Amino acid sequence: MDDIQTTDTSAPAASGLLTGKVAFISGAGRGIGAAAARLFAREDARVLLAARTEDQP
Asked: 37 lies in which domain range?
């Protein structure tokens, strides 16, 4: 019998932990910065983003 490992990649429900807080995130165009921006926004923070190039999201 084959062992199959699965990983749950779903995000937990937002708790509003950062409601009323402001986060400035540099490097938000990709990678860890982009992931942090999404997580902070999901937790209801006001998010200000900075990226090195304009064509990066």
From this structure: 16-56
